[in-house]
Amino acid sequence: MTRIVFSKTGYAKYISHLDLTRCMARMFARANVPIWYTEGFNPHPYMVFSAALPIGVYGENELLDIKLNEKADYKELLDRMNKAAPEGISFKEIYDSDKDFKYVEKAVYEIKIPENISEKFKEFIASPEILVSKKTKRGETTVDLKAEISIKESESKDGYVIFEAIAPCGNETNISPTLLTGAFSEKTGDDTIFEISRISFLAKNSEIFR
Amino acid sequence: MIENIDKILSSVSKPSWYIGTELNTVHKSRDIHTRVAYCFPDLYDVGMSHLGMKLLYHMMNERDDLWCERVFAPNTDMEELLRKTNTSLFALESKDPLREFDFVAFTLVYELSYTGILNMLDLAGIPIYAKDRTENDPIIIAGGPCMCNPEPVADFFDVIDIGEGEENLNELFDLYKECGKNKAEFLEKAKNIRGMYVPNHGEKQEKVTRAVIEDLDSAYYPDKLVVPFAQAVHDRISLEIMRGCIRGCRFCQAGMIYRPYRQKSVERLKSDAVKLCESTGYDEISLLSLSTSDFQKLPELAESLREYCIPRKISLALPSLRIDNFSKEISDEISSIRKTGLTFAPEAGTQRLRDVINKNITDEDIERSCKIAFENGASAVKLYFMIGLPTETDEDIIGIAQTAQQVVEYFYKYATNRSRGISVTISCATFVPKPHTPFQWEAQLTLDEIQRRQDLLKRSITSKKVHLKYHDADTTVLEGVFARGDRKIAQLIEAAWRLGCRLDAWTEHFDFSRWQKAAEECGINFYDYTARKRSFDEQLPWHFVDIGVTKSFMQRECEKAYNAETTPNCIEKCSGCGMNKICKGDVCP
Lengths: 210, 589
Hints:
The complex is a heterodimer of chains A (210) and B (589).
Chain A: E1 2-8, H1 17-30, E2 47-49, E3 58-66, H2 74-84, E4 89-96, E5 104-114, H3 115-125, E6 131-136, E7 139-144, H4 145-148, E8 150-157, E9 160-168, H5 178-188, E10 195-203, E11 208-209
Parallel strand pairs in A: 3-10
Antiparallel strand pairs in A: 1-3, 1-4, 2-3, 5-9, 5-10, 6-7, 8-9, 10-11
Chain B: H1 2-9, E1 34-40, H2 44-47, H3 51-61, E2 66-72, H4 76-84, E3 103-107, H5 114-123, E4 139-143, E5 159-161, H6 165-178, H7 183-190, E6 196-197, E7 208-209, E8 237-240, E9 242-243, H8 253-257, E10 262-263, H9 266-280, E11 284-288, H10 298-309, E12 315-317, H11 328-337, E13 342-347, H12 351-356, H13 363-375, E14 380-387, H14 394-414, E15 423-430, H15 447-460, E16 466-470, H16 473-483, H17 489-498, H18 512-522, H19 526-530, E17 545-546, H20 551-562, H21 579-582
Parallel strand pairs in B: 1-2, 1-3, 3-4, 4-5, 7-17, 8-11, 11-12, 13-14, 14-15, 15-16
Antiparallel strand pairs in B: 5-6, 9-10
């Protein structure tokens, strides 16, 4: 498998996962990437993405697997893809990998909170439980975010306090940190838009998955 | 502003409609001489499917002294947020409020988008009537096919461009520069540019002659297109292969107002197609014209494009095929690239009525085309018909059902694989008489009569293999009002918009009762505009628009229609429509 590491920033954070799939297929065509197509009645470029990013969340190191029809110079390929990329999508690395995305358990996020409300946010995440309802395929369930997401303050810069959150991001459970910020806004009535970025994925033993 | 917009985008349902960073969008510096906010008065996914807007967007941006940006009608959730947060409607690329632009331009493609004009101007804090705007407000302009009768919306605009924008828009922007942005001087002088109608400044123009491109093959065509992130209704490369139509169907406005018939060369089309594929990465090309199979070098073009498309897994769509010259050759081209649906438009159910409307196809043509299609494995056919055409009788309505039934029978006669079954869909619209057509004087059906004829059609269909779809009758009435409306209609549009009418082309938003209430407020009776037959001597609201096709031609055609006499197409014989008089060169086939 050929694994591509890319970032999705700026206004591109508003592109949905489905739209991203189409956007990538067109990018591969423009960059003339010898991508392998599925066979069958309606062939399409074969692509497997790491867990979908929630709309509004930046991705720093998102992963995309493709197959190539022929050997390619990855450095040169990377260059061609970046030239064909739309604004907000940037390709960082290409390498071979046989590690399946099913081994991803968690993801690491950064949440940027303006200093003036960071105390309130700290208080909020210190509550003994944070119950929210979450829509799943089987209907609505209640989740205790406090138990699911581990969050800690990591640094302060430029008037913001940055929190690092680790949340489940596997096939079984996938909990978006936007649930946490959403619950905070709902509780406090604060309408600040938090900047959230997904930084990396973690495998079973909390090792970085790449 | 940007932070505010970010907040809004985080709460709307389709944020990617408003981000303005799609591939191939144009971003320039704000200190440019002329800034144009180019508006489409309907939702993003519809507007981004419209070729005219894409074409003119890139053409305007070729200029070094101008930056053209896009604006679409916001969806209802977006509108609510803009109003709640007091945020002006903004242009997508720069996110700047529309008030700051030199021009706010609208493309008007269908009449039911008219309330969108008012809503967008209002969301931008710009007075909706030209008379209420000052020197400091942007210049509001409009164009598009609806503007062949500009009167219903003329009160809202400073300049209306009648005809083909590729031909005269640059002249308009040159003039703006020359006038040093002096609005009054600009408006007065704009009247001298062919196709420009200035409805609310100084003396009324006696005649406005449509702008026409004489040499389409060397005219501007973009080598890139904006590629939306969110799926558009038509999300593919549109390759315009020709403009105008040789057929002269008497109900068809497009067939009259896009004359003369101009084909592009295969070389130019191939080169444009390759450039567009490379710059967009789209996996589908759709050939665009009023009647694809009338393109004389279609097999050659298809072959040439296929050479490029097949190895790249790009599919080629050939819409707008005609039933009478749908040849084996064309069918081969379709099935060899990728199966596309089969759609034909007989328009009327009997030979007599098809002769009345000059749709020169016969029952034999239908059989021959079905034979080719079914032998090639087609199993779904869509047929377009109209009810309410001039001289229509109940026999013609029953004929629609019979024609569909006949297609079912052809399937069992010719299909190679009968086990797949056949599905025939009748898509039935109600005829709306349109300006600049031989039927511009005709009466349109009333709501009761539409209902009666639709019921008759429904009862006449006996097969489960035939499905029937109607165009909504209420919308048809409104379309009729706008199509042949006069200046009084502006008040109606305003009243309806104030009553909350928005996005009227969408069934979930369209509310006819509000339009009825608005009509009552304005003292307007819809049927005065739609159900009334005009005499040939009546001065019609669009009489001053010289579209190229003459009144005497249209009258002649209308009289021939009553005798069910057909007129040969432009290639067979010139019928003297008048087009060759407004074109300098020899453009007709």
